[in-house]
Design brief:
Length: 177
């Protein structure tokens, strides 16, 4: 892990659909809010918009570890088999508002003609604002990191198989290309 990494976790699940029918980018940017909410009790809301320069953006609202997170995920890679989104996310904590960097990387690879492996990787990073906030509270960086790790990992572990099922439903509901 890089020095700036707060937490990085990666989990995988099987999608029972041919890779030719899977389109992670399309799934993400057409995901109904109710489907997003089914993936985790921490998920509150999602929507899509664009940046000023026209790039697609997914807005997600979650509550992790008692803090509300508003993620402004901007599409960096948007292919059927690979979606990378980058966010400078807002965190609303009991002690104030701060920012955390998040890279959400979703990919799929072929296992056989009817199945794929879905990988959900989330990497959060310290921002200057976050480092200032924890320093003002006298919290050592390593202590903050150690308390966030189990929360972030548990969340990713929980949502990954649910997202895989949602992507599978999306893939199988589409007409053959």
């Amino acid at each position: 892990m890089e020095e700036n990494t707060l937490v990085e976790s990666s989990y995988s699940a099987t999608i029972h659909a041919p890779i030719e029918k899977v389109d992670i980018a399309e799934w993400c940017f057409t995901l109904p809010e109710s489907e997003y909410q089914k993936a985790s009790p921490a998920h509150n809301a999602c929507g899509t918009t664009t940046t000023d320069d026209g790039r697609r953006m997914s807005i997600n609202v979650e509550i992790l570890g008692g803090s509300v997170m508003v993620q402004h995920y901007v599409e960096e890679i948007g292919k059927p088999d690979h979606l990378r989104l980058v966010s400078n996310s807002d965190i609303f904590t009991p002690t104030g508002r701060t920012k955390v960097g998040v890279i959400w990387d979703l990919s799929v690879k072929r296992i056989d003609d009817q199945t794929c492996e879905f990988r959900n990787t989330v990497r959060s990073t310290f921002t200057p604002e976050l480092l200032t906030m924890i320093a003002q509270q006298g919290i050592p960086r390593e202590v903050f990191q150690a308390t966030r790790r189990p929360i972030s990992e548990a969340h990713n572990r929980q949502e990954t198989p649910c997202f895989a099922k949602s992507i599978e439903r999306h893939a199988l509901g589409r007409a053959t290309p």
